[in-house]
Amino acid sequence: DGGITQSPKYLFRKEGQNVTLSCEQNLNHDAMYWYRQDPGQGLRLIYYSQIVNDFQKGDIAEGYSVSREKKESFPLTVTSAQKNPTAFYLCASSPRVDTEAFFGQGTRLTVV
Amino acid sequence: AQSVTQLGSHVSVSEGALVLLRCNYSSSVPPYLFWYVQYPNQGLQLLLKYTTGATLVKGINGFEAEFKKSETSFHLTKPSAHMSDAAEYFCAVSEGPGGYNKLIFGAGTRLAVHP
């Protein structure tokens, strides 16, 4: 089935450790996105990519890094520089950046 | 710059009552507009979208929304609420055709439906 797969669904890490969240899509979409969701704050854009080997910072990119080496994959690394990493992370993709986005099921990251 | 304002972070209705979730946007170009729904610990699912053409858009689960350019609004409605409609709803805007700008989301409205 076509869709967006985020793994794992739940992730626990110790403070100070980097962690990478996986996002894979088989929809042949050019654009991919990472959002962070905190209670009462809606979705905030971390990074987005319009094409392979290119990506742009969103509104809250500090403490995060991404890569886009393949069209299907857009992994997000939460670095130790991110001051408050505990959150629900959503990956999405779309045919173009101005069309509707299709979302994965999310990864809930808890840093202890 | 584009922005989206959702009026009311929480809305509560009785089962069978009208659902009205408000969304206002700002955009310097004709926008594309979207409504998404999110159930707990899930991703977002597209309810409906407006791109061009008819300003009254019908979506899934009996929801519809009307694009009103003069009011810069895209309010979501459903004539009769069902318990299964309880979720969080997000309005989003993009620049539309030829515009290479990302989707901008509102802060969301949590809908509660009580018996």
If you had to describe this structure to a student in words, what would you say it looks like?
The complex is a heterodimer of chains A (112) and B (115). The radius of gyration of chain A is 13 Å and the shape is globular. Chain A is mainly beta and 112 residues long. The termini of chain A are far apart. Chain A has no helices and eleven strands. In chain A, strand 5 and strand 6 (54-57) form a beta hairpin. Chain B has 115 residues and is mostly beta strands. Chain B is built from no helices and eleven strands. Chain B has strands at 3-7, 10-14, 19-26, 32-38, 44-50, 56-58, 64-68, 73-78, 87-94, 104-105, 109-114. In chain B, strands 2, 4, 5, 9, 10 and 11 form a six-stranded mixed beta sheet that branches. In chain B, strand 7 and strand 8 form a beta hairpin. Chain B is globular and about 40 Å long. The N and C termini of chain B lie far apart (41 Å). Chains A and B meet through strand 5, strand 9 and strand 10 of A and strand 4 and strand 5 of B.
What is the fold's blueprint, element by element?
The complex is a heterodimer of chains A (112) and B (115).
Chain A: E1 4-7, E2 10-13, E3 19-25, E4 31-37, E5 43-51, E6 54-57, E7 64-66, E8 76-78, E9 87-94, E10 102-103, E11 107-111
Chain B: E1 3-7, E2 10-14, E3 19-26, E4 32-38, E5 44-50, E6 56-58, E7 64-68, E8 73-78, E9 87-94, E10 104-105, E11 109-114
Parallel strand pairs in B: 2-11
Antiparallel strand pairs in B: 1-3, 3-8, 4-5, 4-9, 6-7, 7-8, 9-10, 9-11
Number of strands of chain A: 11
Number of helices of chain A: 0
The greatest inter-chain interface is formed by:
A-B, 28 and 26 residues
Name the overall outline of chain A: globular
Mean pLDDT of chain A: 92
Low-pLDDT stretches of chain A: none
Give the strand content of chain A.
over 45%
Major sheet details of chain A: 7 strands, mixed
Radius of gyration of chain A: 13 Å
What class, by secondary structure content of chain A?
A: mainly beta
- Mind summarizing the main beta sheet of chain B? 6 strands, mixed
Query: Topology as H/E string of chain A?
Result: EEEEEEEEEEE
CA-based gyration radius of chain B: 14 Å
Give the terminus-to-terminus CA distance of chain A. Answer: 35 Å
Distance between the termini of chain B: 41 Å
Q: Tell me roughly what share of residues is in helical segments of chain B.
A: under 10%
Order of helices and strands of chain B: EEEEEEEEEEE
Average of the residue pLDDT scores of chain B: 90
